[in-house]
């Protein structure tokens, strides 16, 4: 059975925050083989308008928030999230999706959007090392961890900055389809998978 992996895009998103997980899940499907892909990975955004990344790359989302497939896993990447945090429609959508998916995850400052929904209250989470103090001060009800590549709270998983999203995504592959596939995927990517200790 195929797991649908949706990756939310927004203006000023960090490229590797969404491209890293995208590559991990699509690579895991290739490595696994078979007629039916393990993962169907797609991007979605507030609308179908092009999104301009933090580095200036223009990206076309595949789906909008009002018209997208059901998801098994939602990934919220980071970047400059100050505008997204105060879009009530976006925060409500993330919260509503978190009730439907198996796993809601964030990369880097994407954790601020999860925290804004209230879903991290009383839970552990992490973000980019540079943003740890802000996450703590803005959301004192969140148990902010540092020095970890990712924090797994069951149905919510957050990662540290940028490349840590690849480590987290390999962890999610392991959770969804086993250790062996995650290791084979890391090898295929020629990626030195850094795990939490």
What is shown here, in short?
With about 200 residues, the protein is an alpha/beta fold. The chain is about 35% helix and about 20% strand. It is built from seven helices and eleven strands.
Can you put this structure into words, describing what you see?
One of its GO terms (molecular function) is lyase activity. Its EC number is 4.2.1.-. This is DJ-1/PfpI family protein. It is an enzyme of class 4 (lyase). There is one protein chain. Helix content is 37%, strand content 20%. It is of the alpha/beta class. The protein has a seven-stranded mixed β-sheet, with helices on both faces. A two-stranded antiparallel ribbon has the order 3-4. The protein has a two-stranded parallel sheet with strand order 8-9. α1 (15-32) packs parallel to α6 (164-177). The model has no long low-confidence stretch (mean pLDDT 96).
Task: Note the gap between the termini.
Answer: 31 Å
Unreliably modeled segments: none
Question: What level of helicity do the residues show?
Answer: 25-40%
* Bulk shape: globular
Q: What are the secondary-structure elements, in order, as H or E?
A: EHEEEEEHHEHEHEEEHH
Please indicate the percent range of residues in DSSP E strands (runs of 2 or more).
15-25%
Give the strand order of the largest sheet, numbering strands 1, 2, ... along the chain: 5-2-1-6-7-11-10
Average the pLDDT over all residues and give the rounded result.
96
Q: How would a crystallographer describe the biggest sheet?
A: 7 strands, mixed
Query: Using only CA atoms, what is the Rg?
Result: 15 Å
Q: Give the strand tally.
A: 11
Supply the helix-strand structural class.
Answer: alpha/beta
Number of helices: 7
Pfam families: DJ-1_PfpI (PF01965)
Protein name: DJ-1/PfpI family protein
GO molecular function: lyase activity
Keywords: Lyase
């Amino acid at each position: 059975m195929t797991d649908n992996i949706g990756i939310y895009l927004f203006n000023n998103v960090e490229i590797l925050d969404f491209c890293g997980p995208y590559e991990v899940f699509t690579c895991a499907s290739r490595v696994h083989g078979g007629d039916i892909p393990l993962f169907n990975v797609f991007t979605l955004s507030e609308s179908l308008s092009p999104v301009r990344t933090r580095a200036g790359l223009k990206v076309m989302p595949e789906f909008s928030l009002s018209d997208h497939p059901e998801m098994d896993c939602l990934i919220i990447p980071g970047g400059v999230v100050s505008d997204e945090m105060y879009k009530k429609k976006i925060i409500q959508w993330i919260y509503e999706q978190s009730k439907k998916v198996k796993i809601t995850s964030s990369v880097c400052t994407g954790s601020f959007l999860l925290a804004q929904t209230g879903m991290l209250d009383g839970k552990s989470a992490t973000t980019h090392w540079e943003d740890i103090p802000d996450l703590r001060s803005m959301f004192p009800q969140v148990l902010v961890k540092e020095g970890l590549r990712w924090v797994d709270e069951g149905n919510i998983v957050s990662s540290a900055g940028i490349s840590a999203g690849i480590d987290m995504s390999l962890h999610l592959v392991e959770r969804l389809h086993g250790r062996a596939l995650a290791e084979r995927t890391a090898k295929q990517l020629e990626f030195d998978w850094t795990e939490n200790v």
